[in-house]
Fold these 2 entries.
Entry 1:
Amino acid sequence: MAQEYKLILKHADEPGYTPDIECYLRHGGYDSLRKALTVPVVELSDGKKKSAQEQIREDVMKSGLRGRGGAGFSCGLKWSFVDRRSGKPIYLICNADESEPGTFKDRQIIHKDPHQLIEGMIISCFANDVKLAYIYIRGEMPKGAKILNQALKEARAKNLLGKNILGTGYDLEIHVHRGAGAYICGEETGLIESLEGKRPYPRIKPPYFPAVLGLYMCPTIVNNVETLCNVKHIVGMGGAEFAKLGTPNNTGTRIVSLSGQVKRPGYYEIEVGKATLGQLIHDPEFGGGLLDGRKLKAVIPGGSSSKVLKAGEKFKLKRKVDGKDVEERPIFLIFLMISIRFSKRAP
Ligand SMILES: Cc1cc2nc3c(=O)[nH]c(=O)nc-3n(C[C@H](O)[C@H](O)[C@H](O)COP(=O)(O)O)c2cc1C
């Protein structure tokens, strides 16, 4: 039977859990950051040295983490594209625009456990030699921006952020930037334009791949809120352990936003690939079935840009055999998407 698996939301909904730093520290908060900052340099057999940063990046690659912003691109691979030889500063931007209709997972993390995101960001920045990072948050989320600013203030007061973090010599500043609220600002190059104070017209790729020519034409990493939270857990448990969660090609957990005509709308964290769409709609620990008198018309599985799955439609799964696409049954749809929605009120 499919069940929730709480990794990122482990504490967020516990009674008495609050978004302040003291509560986060009581629950083991910032232990992964301490671990990351003290990873010893490894001497290799050829006499070369592997820095803490390189080891963390390797572990993120090993974890198989895919970005949670929609495209599902490998996080480790994205980090490996960063131009580290340009001599320019490297920036990191947390994409907290969450503009996809029906998606509200990032907002839950920000409101209930902001320090988890900040810890994930500091580790990611350290691993990528970033000294200045931004959280680009949707304009319609003023409460989230306020909570994040407060959390950053608390982190600075504990020397987890700012100059000479925890006496390691590493400096980092993170600023919150509020967007004006436009769907396209969620797209990474549109977001970068907006952060530079311009209209958010997406940039042409190539040449404007953020890893090479991003913010202020400098190498830039753009990652989603949930992706960055995962980095904290990868450092905490190790990439190999993290990779045991989910499926071999798509590891970890996913937070599913479930809205529409179900008895229990909300957000649910599941191991990737371990619950079907039907289970998410009907199982008592998830959607709990349709509201009385409602009939399922369609499901929108991944926001407005995804295909609308009509009720009763048959789905065929494709599989690669010897490099060729082969269609196969069963038609059981494995759930790997970020949000699911339901038809308008229908008799
Ligand atoms: C039209 C459009 C809207 C997008 N909106 C968001 C968004 O609201 N939040 C987000 O994290 N990514 C969004 N993305 C994906 C980002 O461009 C980018 O791939 C993502 O932030 C990278 O983070 P990740 O690798 O951690 O997934 C959007 C992409 C497109 C094309």
Entry 2:
Amino acid sequence: MTTKRMLSAVFAIAEDMTIGDKGGIPWFSPADMSSFRDRTVGHIVVMGRKTWDSLPKKPLDDRHNLVLTRAEGEFNPDPRCAWILDPEMLQRSLSVLDPNEELIPYVIGGGEILNVFWNDIAYVYVTRIKGSPDGDTKFDLLTRLQDPSWYHEHSHASDDPAVMSVEWYWRTAAWMTAWTRRNG
Ligand SMILES: NC(=O)c1ccc[n+]([C@@H]2O[C@H](COP(=O)([O-])OP(=O)(O)OC[C@H]3O[C@@H](n4cnc5c(N)ncnc54)[C@H](OP(=O)(O)O)[C@@H]3O)[C@@H](O)[C@H]2O)c1
């Protein structure tokens, strides 16, 4: 029997909770792009099909790309990633790809996928972008983090003028114990 794994998430978000606009990201932050790369290289990135479509270069290199879609059989599967046809399939894919649990599975967005997997996400690495670009894709991080299962682990500043701060939020030990009891 395989053990269900907790997930991490890494994404950037503006002050109005915007994460995307018109299929792209409505800001330019080299520091965020490079810290995203440093964090995820060598690991597993899990994304929604719309985020996959939005990538200028596919797949994200030196990472295992897993893409969630409902479009089973309706399209020509792109061999540059592994397709996940329902959220439950993610755990089976992880156990095949990484049986010794050496890699970190990062949910990287977009908004739909963060919501789908939120209850299994234990570590969040978020870049806070200055301003409110009012994009068409939001993620209600403010409400999510009000849940007492989260605590603020760390934050640091950035030299990038687009960035307010980089923050880490982790689940409490009590949440992890309860999650493991439910899913272990
Ligand atoms: N700021 C950031 O860090 C960041 C990160 C990533 C993305 N983004 C931005 O976010 C936007 C895209 O986000 P989004 O919320 O619109 O889309 P998304 O989460 O990237 O993808 C949504 C798609 O995922 C699939 N899906 C969702 N729930 C599913 C389920 N339960 N089972 C199977 N498949 C499921 C569906 O694909 P099918 O339609 O194929 O069935 C759905 O259309 C873009 O603007 C992108 O640039 C921002």
